[in-house]
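User: I've been trying to design a sequence by hand for this structure and keep getting stuck. Would you show me what you'd pick, starting by listing the structure so we're on the same page?

Assistant: Good idea, let's start from the same input. This is the structure you sent:
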């Protein structure tokens, strides 16, 4: 659906006196019939004109070579425009920029095209996700990024479609369904494009018996070229290839009935020199190995980097960072290409900081691990990585269900992009320090089954909120050659934003408290700050138009940490009260920030006439932790992605509550339908949420 300006609310703040801004450039000039670049420089590390892919180039380094903005003049950096992207949930995303046009997706995979020089909205495409999605909407909120190739913008949707749009007009060129509409796979990651192919994976292993795969399509037509499964299926059905036959030997029991997992929901990197595609594979389905593979085993290719031939999709090699994955230590974080001088010689390597807390330098030709050291302060599940075998040496408490394990399932580094600066030689990692407990003592492999459309970790889920002191975060500069930290800067909360670094000796990072900051890349000294008025989760980009270097970032709250963490993410970002914005900056920008609703904390309300049943409160808490927690927060203490139900008058009326939850009257606004819940279950949810509200009423109530 292509919508014009008249149907999209856009707040535009134009630059006054911006140096070389070219503000007189019109949308008509932008849309002049000159051919758009085929790949817009995705293969050129030293050409920073465009930002054509999620990590800018094939290296996925989130680095810009532009030097107009530097550590010496960043005090002149100012706002040039702020474009209102609406108040849909989920603004955790990374834009693209091609020939002065910024492309960004927010909400339910809506794509906007904006002229950076004038700030005008050129077009907006709405894929109408709510009309197509089913259970997928329960745990997936939108797309984290886009891809570009030969005049087309590619976006994946929550309901499993991959769509190609004409970059000039927003017209849909083709659309393919990459998943079965009846299963629970969804797309939240950015596609990648190379050699005329567009590749996409999916998520869903947290909520359903999903077997992961990636699919490559013809970028021009959408025709499927190849598909690679990341874990083996039922042996009775035969194996797709020798890689799956070999991987099956590392599984036990009837794992295929649990799906297996291994979804590729984020990290995909293409190496043009080797013509290899590197996949970062996900956690097991369920997380708990004791339930999916009762007699143990490494469970290939979970939590691995898998290298495939880019043309055929055939397996080449793998490296598993977490054998026998059982902690949700998925391997879906950035896989960055670099050339490092090691032992006096240049080595082509992969740089990788996954959830498990170890930083890996891996030979990208052979897949052999070169070095691996802890990049987080607290990593207690493993002592070290044995470089002879490449395997982690687990600690005695690693699989103890009573132990507190570092890091938690949120990981020491989640999906928010890190960045690698070729000048400083440093990697900049948004790091989380948080422990977690994975208790499965009440669960049995013989009786445990997936509950479709619910959170299925394979562990007992707590029903209380996450305390405000449960974790911390910081931005760190890490030396991959010496495997040591160079500097760090504290960050608010425990859900840090992604990172951009530039050749101007700069590192940009958006933060959970709404601050957008720049640091000196070599020393970590804070140089500049801007208040965006809303938490920032995605990564910034930089590009050039009309001889002006721009920095662009989306202020948008999103991801699991923006939903689940409650008090830990309690910065007052109330759902739908604030609008996502694309902010554009350049030297001598003079625009004023937009007005935003001030941050406010939810005020729980009560119904004194309602008598709470302790049994219903307990049952409701268990059900809430399986169904509602992914959006409305642990313990019903929302962190801002969705409304705080403790403060909602809807909960006071059983009929209104049933209409929304069971009947799906607010599906178009992003609230999924739970038609399978009985009236009795709905009532237990009301009792639990009312109990949580009463526990947090102001003292004078």
């Amino acid at each position: 659906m292509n919508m014009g300006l008249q149907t999209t609310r856009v707040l535009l703040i134009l630059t006054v006196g911006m140096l070389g801004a070219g503000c007189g450039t019109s949308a008509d000039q932008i849309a002049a019939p000159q051919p758009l670049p085929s790949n817009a420089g995705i293969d050129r590390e030293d050409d920073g004109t465009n930002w054509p892919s999620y990590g800018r180039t094939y290296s996925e380094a989130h680095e810009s070579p532009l030097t107009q903005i530097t550590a010496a003049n960043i005090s002149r950096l100012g706002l040039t425009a702020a474009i209102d992207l609406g108040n849909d949930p989920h603004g955790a995303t990374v834009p693209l920029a091609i020939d002065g046009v910024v492309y960004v997706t927010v909400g339910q995979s809506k794509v906007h095209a904006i002229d950076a020089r004038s700030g005008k909205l050129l077009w907006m495409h709405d894929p109408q996700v709510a009309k197509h999605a089913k259970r997928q909407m329960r745990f997936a909120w939108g797309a984290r990024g886009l891809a570009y190739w030969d005049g087309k913008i590619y976006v994946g949707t929550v309901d499993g479609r991959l769509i190609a749009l004409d970059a000039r007009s927003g017209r849909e060129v083709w659309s393919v369904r990459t998943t079965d509409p009846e299963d629970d796979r969804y797309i939240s990651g950015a596609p990648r494009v190379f050699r005329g192919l567009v590749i996409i994976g999916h998520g869903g292993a947290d909520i359903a018996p999903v077997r992961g795969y990636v699919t490559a399509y013809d970028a021009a037509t959408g025709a499927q070229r190849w598909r690679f499964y990341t874990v083996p299926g039922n042996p009775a059905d035969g194996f797709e290839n020798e890689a799956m036959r070999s991987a099956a030997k590392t599984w036990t029991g009837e794992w295929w009935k649990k799906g297996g997992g291994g979804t590729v929901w984020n990290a995909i990197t293409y190496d043009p020199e080797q013509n290899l595609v590197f996949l970062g594979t996900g956690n097991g389905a369920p997380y708990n190995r004791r339930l999916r593979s009762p007699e143990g085993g490494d469970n290939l290719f979970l939590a691995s980097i898998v290298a495939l031939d880019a043309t055929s999709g055939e397996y080449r090699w793998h490296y598993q960072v977490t054998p026998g994955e059982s902690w949700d230590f998925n391997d879906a974080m950035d896989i960055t290409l670099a050339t490092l001088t090691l032992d006096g010689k240049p080595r082509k390597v992969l740089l990788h900081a996954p959830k498990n807390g170890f930083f890996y330098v891996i030979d990208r030709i052979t897949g052999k691990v070169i070095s691996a050291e802890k990049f987080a302060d607290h990593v207690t599940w493993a002592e070290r990585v044995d470089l002879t075998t490449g395997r982690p040496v687990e600690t005695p408490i690693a699989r103890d269900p009573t132990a507190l394990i570092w890091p938690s399932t949120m990981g020491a580094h989640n999906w928010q992009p890190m960045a690698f600066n070729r000048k400083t030689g440093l990697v900049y990692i948004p790091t989380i320090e948080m422990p977690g407990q994975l208790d499965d003592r009440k669960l049995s492999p013989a009786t445990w089954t997936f509950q479709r459309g619910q959170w299925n970790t394979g562990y007992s889920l707590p029903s209380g909120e996450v305390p405000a002191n449960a974790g911390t975060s910081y931005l760190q500069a890490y030396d991959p050659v010496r495997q040591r930290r160079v500097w760090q800067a504290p960050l608010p909360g425990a859900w840090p934003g992604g990172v951009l670094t530039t050749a101007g000796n700069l590192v940009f990072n958006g933060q959970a408290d709404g601050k957008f900051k720049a640091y000196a890349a070599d020393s970590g000294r804070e140089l500049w700050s801007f208040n965006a008025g809303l938490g920032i989760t995605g990564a910034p980009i930089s590009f050039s138009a009309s001889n002006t270097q721009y920095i662009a970032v989306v202020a948008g709250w999103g991801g699991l940490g923006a939903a689940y963490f409650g008090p830990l993410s309690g910065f007052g970002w109330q759902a739908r009260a604030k609008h996502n914005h694309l902010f554009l900056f350049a030297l001598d920008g003079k625009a004023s920030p937009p007005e935003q609703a001030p941050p406010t904390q939810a005020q729980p309300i009560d119904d004194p006439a309602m008598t709470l049943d302790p049994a219903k409160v307990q049952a409701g808490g268990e059900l809430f932790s399986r169904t509602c927690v992914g959006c409305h927060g642990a313990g019903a203490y929302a962190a801002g992605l969705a409304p705080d139900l403790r403060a909602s008058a809807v909960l006071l009326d059983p009929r209104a509550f049933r209409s929304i939850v069971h009947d799906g009257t607010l599906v178009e606004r992003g609230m999924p339908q739970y038609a399978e819940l009985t009236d009795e279950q709905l009532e237990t949810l009301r009792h639990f949420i009312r109990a949580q509200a009463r526990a947090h009423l102001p003292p004078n109530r």
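That's my pick for every position. To get oriented when you compare it with your attempt: The radius of gyration is 24 Å. Confidence is low (pLDDT under 50) at residues 1-33.
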